[in-house]
């Protein structure tokens, strides 16, 4: 595992660099990269977008800056949950650990005034975290200077009303059933006409036999449906009972 | 009822959650995005882009909120919270000329914000005490290639520290520390140097003004002089003005009796003295000095004298070469209050005078009136202007146009363009301290009539009814006249439009009045049916500056609303008009809180005094127990004594050692329960533990970071259930809600070393349900009883069976409420205020069912109940957010109210912003939605009719033919 360190807060002037050597203050930078979901984070994120860093008893807040970054200064040591609240996008949550491993870094001789001053820097580590995993269960570490935090999805606040469309009508099973039966009504006579007379006679016979009991019984059971019994979860077959009743009453 | 309940369940299953429809958003809800009352010294017009002529109106309000408002329509462009709860008088806001950023300072925090979109440019915190002043340096040196102008700030309460900050990064360029022990007062800058003004305490009393000149480049002290002002300046507020960013900045002061005005040009020791005009002998109570803040403007300034009944002004000119100040002209005395504002156009300086009657524009060079506009259509006639800012445009010829943003005594912010009212922002609503719903008439009228009929004998009731119907006939012609337009409206238009003529309720009960009391002593009525329009506003109490109205209780009782404050003072207003009906004077004992008690249909507001006694009216039932938080930190149940100011302790709940009570939650007054049990998938019933006297006590231990919830019976004080959590941030909001047979709470939970359960970090939401027994179809100990009392000895045995589940939630919840519907049949929603994302989320109760199967998929029986597999996280679906794209900030309290429709609940949220909407947690099952195509329905009926008309003769012919042709 590769830990990236962030050289902390060597303040801009040399005189105070010595004092910060003892009490290391940390600058945490988080940048929103340009992605296909959010091509221009600096301009398109609303001004109310803010970052919060929370742990037990401590919390920090940073508003978004013009260039689409968040900066927090003087963050104390601790293991923090980093979250971004935004009106338009959902951001992932990060675990950010600050401190713990303090190391001495000799400032590179970039500017003559700062050259050779040893500064204590605090280590910043960041991982993406998920709310249903244990805190100790970290994954791959993220680059930390700056931490890159891209939004996951755009927030969709509204539900579209389903308007009327003929296609949605066709998707309805009742309509489909109706259409099929309509087709049968108009189609059957044609089919029957094309059948040979013997077969036709046989079918007629069958229909005459089947008519009497089946359909009227089903209709009767439907009319005498016992709602209360059904709600109470009676297991007996209501259709059998009611059909026998109806027959008796005749 | 049972059938109805099950059909509601089916409906809620079909459409799982309520969500905001695109076409309803911004129509059924209302929102006032507020800033708080603007302050004179932190409000100005500024062009956010030097290339564009359009300017925005910026303010850092009394609430410590920095915001930009579009002067065209008064809409909020952006806002940022700078200082919450910090004294606003020590807040500063400046914008350099042609700069694209505004710089604000409040407390020890200085920040620069992009003027156009409100994003942070830089921010910096210093440990030198609170900011005392802030100026943007308009130095000649910085004109050529500096990207941003530097800022000079003064910090400290006892030892002044002047810092020059880099305008682009906020880093310190130099600092000057005043070691003399003089009181730091202000900084000022001219084109060449920086002046640090401090107050040197004189030997006996008063202050000497000390001016230290600093080098702008290095911060080194280049000069210092002291003015002998100790005879005049006995207190710091007698210093009227310290100019800045002027060719020659001035310091002006007066004497305690406001008789003379003394002016010193910074850099010289000379003091010019002028007499305050006092022709009528009336005492001048306030002197305000107005000067331009632009470095190359002409060096003129205006002095505004305000006396109790009139005001006047004088304009002074500074002679730059001679270094003298002279009076140029004076403006006539006018009755009433007035304000002046300074505007600079190029080098010219204009003064705009606004009174309750008119706006007058004068140039600083001469007293000729350039423009005069009578005020039209603005409420300036009622409320006097307090301060204002103006923008002047010179048109062709010698005509001018002026637009002024004026703050009124009421706290309202109005833009007046050439005397015409343009827009108004109700900034006083930013401090709502109490709110309640009031039913509108009509429905009450009918209810009253029906009641009359119900109580009379049959014959007279019948006559009464016939008479009522005859009376109703009077409205028939008008009703018929309106019919076509109503039909057309219902077919093609917005069918849910609520009639807004007159104050009458609509047939769905969506229209109610929301009565609010604001901290500046005003009471207002908002119309929930007409996008929160203000129906009336009454100033009830005239509070001194900086004081807040300490409202302890508010009760709408019939046609009147009672508001009681901490002093025991009570005001009664008429609900429909806002007329003050009655005032009760303050009482010697301090009111700690109030309670609303209903007895025989009569509501009364009881005062709970500091000494834990309660003043109860005669009619109150004996044995009424009221829970209060005692002075010793315990929760106490006390009985009231009818008609007396006393109380009888019944029980006391002491939190465990080291813990303190942070919250008491009880069920809402209107919390109907539709079904006493929950029908399971196998048709067995879990009986709910329904106790109207449930009380949820929240206790925390700051040392151990633990949180406990104790569920009490408020009549007996018995503890029914206790839950504890470790690793809880006790400083963050811990919120809870209690309804029906369930309660929820939310908090920050951290990792606890060595614990097996507390292994993750984040916000948690816990939901718990109470049942009479763990076994279905069993009523526990109460099963066979007809009567039950919670003060029986055996009552302690009857503990509810509690099941709970916890969820990890993405954000902090800072407030919780439950929706209310008329019968309680509709499933409830938990309304949670999300302070970090400025939203209110409605979490469906179904999602928060603690019986969700853990670690397995639901059985078919469970699926029938609507249960689905438990997952430990609960993400807030954006479609649950009832505030949708609106940013509703700073919400303290959410109240709900049922409507006449069972499906719908009204919601009103207040705090900083004001937001109102209506929600239907199980969707609108009792009203046709917009998606119902009435035109399509009629079209279909017509098509079917046409089909029948065509087919009927064909069928008839065929049947006749069949008769003839049959074998």
Major sheet of chain B: order of its strands? Answer: 2-65-64-63
Oligomeric assembly:
heterodimer
Distance between the termini of chain B: 59 Å
In CATH, the architecture of the largest domain in chain A is Sandwich
Structural class assignment of chain B: mainly beta
The percentage of residues in β strands of chain A lies in 25-35%
- Structural shape of chain A: elongated
User: Gyration radius of chain A, to the nearest Å?
Assistant: 37 Å
Task: Predict the CATH topology of the largest domain in chain A.
Answer: Immunoglobulin-like
Largest interface, per-chain counts? A-B, 51 and 59 residues
Helical amount of chain A: 25-40%
Mean pLDDT of chain A: 72
The best one-word shape of chain B is globular
* Low-confidence sequence ranges of chain B: 1-16
- The helix/strand order of chain A is HEHEEEEEEEEEEEHHHHHH
Percent of sequence in beta strands of chain B: 35-45%
Describe this structure in words.
By secondary structure, chain A is α+β, with helices and mostly antiparallel strands. Helices cover 33% and strands 26% of the residues of chain A. Helix content of chain B is 10%, strand content 42%. Chain B is built from six helices and 65 strands. Chain B has a four-stranded antiparallel sheet with strand order 2-65-64-63, with no helix packed on it. Chain B has a four-stranded antiparallel sheet with strand order 3-4-5-6, with no helix packed on it. Chain B is globular and about 125 Å long. At the A-B interface, strand 2, strand 3, strand 5 and strand 12 of A face helix 1, strand 1, strand 6 and strand 10 of B.
